[in-house]
Amino acid sequence: MPLVAWCALAYAGGLLAGITLPERHGLLAAVVLAALAAGAVRLHRGWTGGVMAIAAGGVLVAAADVAHERACGQTLAARHQWELRVDVPVADGDIARGWVSAQGCERRAMVFVETGSGAPGELLALTGRAELGERSLVVQQGGLRVLGDDAVLPRLRARTSQRIDRIFTADAPLVRALVIADMSAIDAAQRDRYADAGLVHMLSVSGLHVGIIALALELLGAALRLPKAPTRVASLVLLVVYVAAIGAPPPAVRAAVMLGVLLASRLRQRPTSRWAILALGGVVPLVVPGTVLDLGWQLSVAGTAALVAGGVLVRRVVPRSWRGLRRTIATGIIISVVATVTTAPLVAWAIGRVALVGPLTNLLADPIMGLLQPVLFVALCIPIPPIETLCADAAHALIALFDAIARAGAAVPGGAQAITPSTTSAILTGVAAVAALVACASRQPARAMLIAASAIALLMLGPIVRPDRAFTELHVIDVGQGDAIALRTRRDRWILVDAGRSWLGGDAGRSTVVPYLAHRGGSLALFVLSHPHADHVGGAASVFASLHPSRFLDPGYVGTSPPYLAALTEAARARVPWQRVHPGDSLRIDEVLLTALAPESTWVAGLTDANLASTVLVARVGAIRFLFTGDAEAPEEEWLLAHDADALAADVLKVGHHGSRTSTTPRFLGAVRPRLALVSVGAHNAYGHPSPEVMQTLRDSGAQVLRTDRVGTIIVSTDGRHLEVEARNEKWSIPERVGP
Fold first, then answer.
1. 207 vs 378, which has greater pLDDT?
2. pTM given for the model
3. Which end of the chain is more exposed for a tag (fewer CB within 10 A), N or C?
């Protein structure tokens, strides 16, 4: 690799160390690197010394940025009024995400909006009570007021989103992800399906999409017989405007910079190393040091490096006599395998699985994406109804084919392996992946292959002992329209309540719940079924087959749905002890004490609706109480109130029936008095859940309301006295209830 590539790699490594290490350790690392750089220069190894000096500089830049961000965060957290710019339209009861600013400081923010509304492109006055989270400011009791227009690009992005909804209708969620980098409407099941198939990287705007658009524009210019140089310059200008309009995500910025460098090289007729072009494209987004932690940037750089190294390997191992389709297929397979190996550690760490079918599915899906992306781009650039309709019809066929590949890939037995990486194993697999990449690109690969083999050998030495955890955690897993709630004890044992829904050819247990728990490690001590509806029991059979819980609690309501029968069959096959829920029964698992409140057998006997026979549990951890209600509706809530209203008091409430208006009556809520209300619900579901009236009632009661359709998976941690919440990679504390 050229010197510029080594310098870029050293700078990125220095930034990563400076951000992730404690301040004292980071400064020590900078001093050590500077000393090594000085020693290398004295030994006349200027190349090595320069690279080490750049790494030391990266550590210092990151440390300074962290200190500045901390100071700015403290300044903003001390205020009660800010200016806010939002990413999507917000109104009363929403959780807004955007940027807050005051006194020259700016920071990402998560705002719980109580009053007011706003839209992208508007400058909003925000009032509220702030708390400094790990990555952003969390503002409670937010009040919004429009100050005026702020920027053109956010308004353009919002209007583009509306056009996409109008043109592409049912395909709009995927199109918004592919064109304007908005994945908010893609449900968890679809994301998991693409993750299992190794295609999840294609669901957001990245270097691949920008490159496809650039190639399409160049081919269009050639078809119109336009001069090459002006066409390339005009294409680059259009791409820069496009990348800016979608919010300049780091992978797209990386691709645009690389295209710009390549264009300059061609115009000057000077060949440039592919590694140098990648280095420049990868380092420009690092103007914002925190970008080094962005998974999209990491995957984009790693994937492009795999493309370059894979190309070198193809030229070395594929016979020159191979031509046409034979060479194309061999090239595609080799590059896909190299890309899968290179990105596997990042994917395993981020989503807890590695798609072994990825090389094949990517080989099949790449040509489809190569056709789909220009079609979508044309539809949005030419606002003429016949052209929009033609493009929408063509896009629908391509999206259906693309989704069919994802479904087929996700359905391959063993095609996606659940991975449980520790920090040590992630580092070792990362070293092995980088060494494999170097081996592919090197003319003398023996040393790099030895390093890769050594890292794998260390990885196979044995499991690493995990110490007891300091907190008990409640995970409301985002499974779309359904429930899957997991309690994690301090000894890494899990209590799982429900396992999400099922669908034709798959279920949330296999695609989401099992990988989620496996990624975090530990054993499944107990599975509790709230009731036998498919959106709760759909993934249970997969959970039994993969995680082998030590016990199975069932409300005992006779259900005949195929998912429920499959769960019972798999539980019997796996010899999982089955037990019916009885009110008053208690079970202790480590520090968690579970007590069943419902259903009672005499109550269940006269029912025709399984919702009314939902398992209702209280989990106690020290002084903190969690209440799980399944899909319990008003009649069962009245039964609970009549039998033991005092037992319902809880700090955290899993809101019944996905926030439906048939549950969470005022009397019931008055008995529970939660500080935190959690709603497991699918985005844009067909049932209209949750009810706006119920959400308003919860907020009026003083509870903070979180919904999986808006913030994804929610994690609540407690030491038995305090509550802390994590959602969207942000953490904040839940205050004690004040007053009656």
1. 378
2. 0.71
3. C
